[in-house]
Design a protein that fits this description.
The complex is a heterodimer of chains A (239) and B (493). Chain A is 21% helix and 14% strand. In chain A, the strands form three sheets. A five-stranded mixed beta sheet of chain A has the order 2-1-5-3-4, with no helix packed on it. The longest helix of chain B is centred in the first third of the chain and has 33 residues. The chains are: A alpha+beta (239), B alpha+beta (493).
Chain lengths: 239, 493
C-alpha cells in the first residue's frame, strides 16, 4: 500500500498521490485540490450525473468522480475550456428550477451558489423556465422546496444506502426528471422519513429544509462567507 | 380639501404634457397634465407605472422566509420591510414580547435606516432644488452640482448616509438586504468591536444632523412665502405614536388628526388597522388610494411621513430633536403645517432624533446581549406596523398549520400619501403652470412637490388583479366602437 501511495498522476501540472481504488476526484480532494462538483459526496458511491467534475484525462473528457486514478495520468481541470462548460451546466441548472438566492435561507450555505461564485457565473444566460413547483410542507418538522432541486440524487442515495429506506426517488426522464417521495399521497408526511435520517441532512442546496430555522445563522457566519468552496476542506462536505 | 383636477370633462380636446419619468425619486412614476389652448390646466395625475406583486407570490412560501423576501421590495428602505414583517411574524412564533437585546438591535437597525434614507433624500435628491432654485440650470441641478458649489454639504450628506448604512451592516450583516431581524427576535447582537467602531463617529453624526436641521430651518425663514405656500393643501394626518405620546418610529399606537390638528382617533392598536383604513382602486394608477373608513373616500384621505409624525406626537424623547420640534411647532403657529416643503424640515428633525437614538443605544449594554429569541404559543395571523422613513408601513399575514403564508396585505408608506401627492401636484399646477407656457423649470416645480414626500414608487404598487380597467376601441375619427370594463372585483362587462 505504501508503494501505491507514492504513485502519482498530475493535475494541472501538480503531482497528486493516490491509493489504489481512489477516483481522480477523491485523490485530488485528499491532496487539497478542488475540482468543482455537485452530485459527488465522499460518503456515497459516485453518481456521475452532474458532470461538473468533468476533467480531461490524457486529452479526453471524463467525469473525475467515476474515473480511477492511475499512475502518470495527465489530468487537466482548471482550464478555460472546462470551466466554460461547467459554467454553462450551472446556468442550465439555475434556469431549469427556481433559484431565488436573495430570499433563500440556504444562501451562503448552498453548494450550487458557492460553485457558481467559484466559476464566476455572472448571469443565468439562458431563458428561465420558471416551472410551477409547489412546496411540500405536510411534514411537521421538514419542508421540501422542489423549486431548488438539482437532481443530484444525494437524498435518494442517503435514504437507500444509509437509512435503509426509500423515501426519495427521481422520476421521469430527461427534462421531465423530478424528485418524488415514496407515498401514495405524494406527501412527505406519509413516508417513513425521519429527522434523524441521513437523507434529512444531505441536500447540498435548499430542497430538504428543517422547518422554522430560516435565517438563524447571521451573514458572516454562514459556511461560504469566510472561504470560497474551493478553499474548504473535504471534511465539511457532509455538514 | 380636494381639487377638481383629477379627471377632465373632455380630455380628447386637450393637449397632453408628460413628465416621464419623474426624476430624483425612488422607483418609476410619471405625471400627465392636460392643458387647453390657453395653457389652462384641466387634469393632473401622478401615475405609478411600475407593477410588482409581492402580496401574491409570497403566498405558499414558508413564513420564516418572508422578512428577507419582502424586503426586496426596496433597495432604499429594505430594513423597514424586514422589521415590519418580523414584527408581524413575531405573533406567529408566539413572541408577544421580543427580548430587550432583540428589540434594541432591531431599533438600532431601524434608526440606522432612518438616518441613511433621510440623508440620501435631503442631500442627494432634494438639496439641488432647495439650494440652487427650482428652475435653476438643469445641468447643475444635481448632487454633482452640489459637490462643486457646496462641497462641505455634499460631503456631510455622503458620510451621514454611509454611517447609517454601517449601522445597518453591523446589525443586519449587509448594508442592503441583510438578515438581522427574524420572526421572534434577531439572529445576532452587536459585538463590542462593532459598537466601538460606531461610537467613534456617532457624535459627529449628531452634530451634522443638527446642522442639517438648521440649514432647512434657515431656508424656511429666508423664504417664508415660498416655503409656506408651495403646493400647500390641508389634509388629515396619521402615524404611530409611542405609548407615552412620544415620537416613536419603531412601535406604538395609531393616532390620526384632522386638518386642524384635532385628534380623530388615538391609541388604536394597529392589529385592528383594517377597521379604520380601507383602500380604493382607480383605473389610472397601479397604486391604491387608502382612506379612513370613518370619513369615506372623499374626505378620509390622509398624509403620513415626517411632516405628520413630528406634528402628531406630543414630544420627542431625545433633547436636541425636541428643541427643534418645539421650534418647528412654534413656527407653524396654532394650526398644523401643511406645506409640502415642511417635510424637509420635519425629516431633518427625525434624522437628528435617529442619530441621538443611535448614540443612546450604543451606550446600552443590552445591545451586546445573548438572549436573541423569544417564543410562545403558535399563532396564525399577525400585523406588524413600523414608521418607515417615508411613513406608516403596515404588513399583515396569515399562516396556515403547515407554516405557509396564505394571505399577505401590505400598505406601504408611499401608498398612504397617494392622494396627498396628487393634491400637491395639482396645487402646484394651479399655482405655477396655469395660463403659462410650459417650460422645463416650471415642470420641475411639479417634481419638487412630489420629491418633498420622498415617495418610493417601487414599494407602493401592489394592486395585483384588483385594478379596474376600461378598454375603448375607437375608429379613426375617434368614435367609440365598443367598451370593455373590469371592476375592482374582477367582474367584466
Amino acid at each position: 500500500m505504501n508503494q501505491d501511495k507514492l504513485e502519482t498522476f498530475t493535475l494541472d501540472g501538480q503531482p497528486i498521490p493516490f491509493s489504489a481504488g481512489q477516483t481522480i476526484i477523491q485523490a485530488a480532494m485528499a491532496a487539497g485540490v478542488y475540482i468543482p462538483h455537485l452530485c459527488f459526496h465522499p460518503e456515497f458511491k459516485p453518481h456521475g450525473s452532474c458532470k461538473l467534475c468533468t476533467v480531461k484525462v490524457n486529452g479526453r473528457q471524463t467525469a473525475s468522480c467515476t474515473y480511477f486514478a492511475q499512475a502518470n495520468l495527465v489530468v487537466e481541470s482548471n482550464i478555460t475550456e472546462l470551466n466554460d462548460e461547467r459554467r454553462a451546466l450551472l446556468q442550465m441548472l439555475f434556469v431549469e428550477g427556481n433559484h431565488f438566492c436573495p430570499s433563500c435561507e440556504k444562501s451562503g450555505d448552498c453548494q450550487l451558489q458557492a460553485t457558481a461564485y467559484e466559476l464566476k457565473m455572472m448571469s443565468p444566460h439562458f431563458d428561465h423556465f420558471f416551472p410551477d413547483r409547489p412546496v411540500d410542507a405536510t411534514h411537521p418538522d421538514y419542508l421540501l422546496d422542489f423549486n431548488r432541486c438539482i437532481l443530484c440524487s444525494l437524498c435518494v442515495r442517503a435514504s437507500r444506502d444509509v437509512d435503509g429506506k426509500a423515501v426519495f426517488a427521481l422520476s421521469g426522464r430527461g427534462i421531465n426528471s423530478h424528485l418524488i417521495v415514496n407515498a401514495e399521497s405524494g406527501n412527505l408526511v406519509d413516508t417513513d422519513f425521519s429527522s434523524t435520517d441521513k437523507a434529512a441532512h444531505i441536500c447540498p442546496v435548499g430542497v430538504i429544509l428543517k422547518k422554522r430555522v430560516g435565517f438563524a445563522v447571521p451573514i458572516g457566519q454562514r459556511r461560504f462567507d469566510a472561504q470560497p468552496i474551493s478553499a474548504q476542506p473535504l471534511s465539511k462536505e457532509d455538514v | 380639501m380636494t381639487t377638481n383636477l383629477e379627471t377632465a370633462a373632455h380630455p380628447e380636446a386637450l393637449r397632453r404634457v408628460a413628465i416621464d419619468p419623474v426624476s430624483r425619486v425612488e422607483g418609476h412614476g410619471k405625471v400627465t397634465i392636460l392643458l387647453d389652448e390657453h395653457n389652462k390646466v384641466h387634469q393632473v395625475r401622478l401615475h405609478i407605472v411600475e407593477f410588482r406583486g409581492f402580496e401574491k407570490f409570497i403566498q405558499g412560501r414558508p413564513y420564516w422566509e418572508v422578512p428577507v423576501m419582502v424586503q426586496r421590495l426596496c433597495g432604499i428602505c429594505p430594513v423597514s420591510h424586514q422589521l415590519a414583517a418580523s414584527k408581524a411574524l413575531d405573533a406567529i412564533v408566539g413572541a408577544k414580547h421580543v427580548t430587550p437585546t432583540a428589540e434594541k438591535n432591531r431599533r438600532l437597525m431601524h434608526y440606522g435606516q432612518i438616518l441613511q434614507s433621510h440623508a440620501l433624500h435631503f442631500f442627494h435628491l432634494c438639496s439641488p432644488d432647495l439650494l440652487f432654485g427650482f428652475d435653476s440650470e438643469v445641468a447643475k441641478r444635481n448632487i454633482v452640482g452640489i459637490a462643486e458649489q457646496h462641497p462641505e454639504t455634499a460631503k456631510r450628506g455622503i458620510l451621514l448616509r454611509k454611517f447609517g448604512q454601517e449601522v445597518i451592516r453591523h446589525t443586519a450583516g449587509k448594508r442592503i438586504h441583510g438578515t438581522g431581524a427574524v420572526p421572534g427576535g434577531v439572529n445576532k447582537s452587536l459585538t463590542i468591536a462593532e459598537r466601538d467602531i460606531l461610537l467613534k463617529d456617532i457624535y459627529q453624526m449628531v452634530s451634522w444632523s443638527r446642522d442639517a436641521v438648521h440649514l432647512v430651518k434657515q431656508l424656511h425663514h429666508q423664504h417664508p412665502e415660498l416655503y409656506n405656500s408651495f403646493g400647500a393643501f390641508r389634509a388629515n394626518f396619521m402615524s404611530l405614536v409611542g405609548f407615552d405620546g412620544s415620537l416613536d418610529l419603531y412601535h406604538g399606537r395609531l393616532r390620526a388628526r384632522d386638518e386642524n390638528g384635532k385628534v380623530l382617533f388615538d391609541g388604536v392598536d394597529y392589529q385592528n388597522y383594517s377597521q379604520i383604513i380601507a383602500e380604493e382602486v382607480k383605473n389610472w394608477s397601479y397604486m391604491k388610494f387608502p382612506y379612513l373608513k370613518s370619513l369615506g373616500t372623499e374626505k378620509g384621505w390622509y398624509r403620513v411621513g415626517p411632516l405628520s409624525r413630528v406634528q402628531n406626537c406630543d414630544f420627542i424623547s431625545t433633547p436636541l430633536a425636541e428643541i427643534e420640534r418645539r421650534d418647528f411647532v412654534a413656527y407653524s403657529g396654532v394650526m398644523p403645517m401643511h406645506a409640502p416643503l415642511g417635510y424637509h424640515w420635519a425629516r431633518m428633525i427625525e434624522m437628528l432624533h435617529a442619530a441621538e437614538m443611535i448614540k443612546d443605544l450604543l451606550h446600552d449594554d443590552d445591545i451586546l446581549g445573548s438572549e436573541l429569541m423569544a417564543t410562545g404559543e403558535r399563532g396564525f395571523e399577525g400585523v406588524g406596523v413600523i414608521e418607515a422613513p417615508r411613513g406608516t408601513l403596515i404588513h399583515h399575514y396569515r399562516v396556515d398549520e403547515q407554516d405557509l403564508v396564505t394571505m399577505c396585505n401590505l400598505i406601504v408608506s408611499t401608498t398612504h400619501n397617494n392622494q396627498a401627492m396628487n393634491e400637491a401636484v395639482r396645487r402646484v399646477a394651479q399655482q405655477y403652470l396655469h395660463g403659462h407656457e410650459v417650460t422645463e423649470g416650471l415642470l420641475n416645480h411639479i417634481e419638487v412637490a412630489i420629491r418633498a414626500f420622498d415617495p418610493c414608487l417601487s414599494c407602493a404598487t401592489h394592486a395585483l388583479g384588483k385594478m379596474p380597467l376600461e378598454v375603448e376601441v375607437l375608429d379613426a375619427a375617434g368614435l367609440n366602437l365598443s367598451t370593455l370594463s373590469r371592476t375592482s372585483e374582477g367582474v367584466l362587462s
